[in-house]
Amino acid sequence: MKKLDKDKITFTELLKSLDIPKSSLYYHLKILEENELITIRDVITITRPRTIIQITPKGRLIIEKYIELLEKIQKKKKRNMKSYKN
């Protein structure tokens, strides 16, 4: 299983990568934060304030389990396709 490379990202980076409305992203991040899957904190940088989103150990565990499940489903699908072809 591939290890998650990045454990934190700015709100702006995430917003640009998802291409969804700011209000929608904020809403979903708040739900993840309430469930202790991420932390959200505002930091002051030299250039401007930034909102940093960081995954928690609990959030990382859930993502890793989800990826494992997807891999199992993919393997099962490949096995089924092979048996269908034969």
Q: In a nutshell, what does this entry contain?
A:
The protein is of the alpha+beta class and 86 residues long. 58% of the residues lie in helices and 20% in strands. Strands 1-3-2 form a 3-stranded antiparallel β-sheet.
Commentary on this structure:
With 86 residues, the protein is α+β, with helices and mostly antiparallel strands. It has two domains: 7-55, Orthogonal Bundle (Arc Repressor Mutant, subunit A), CATH 1.10.10.10; 57-86. Helix content is 58%, strand content 20%. It is built from three helices and three strands. The protein has helices at 11-18, 22-34, 57-85, and strands at residues 8-10, 38-44, 49-55. A three-stranded antiparallel sheet has the order 1-3-2. Strand 2 and strand 3 form a beta hairpin. The longest helix is centred in the last third of the chain and has 29 residues, at 57-85.
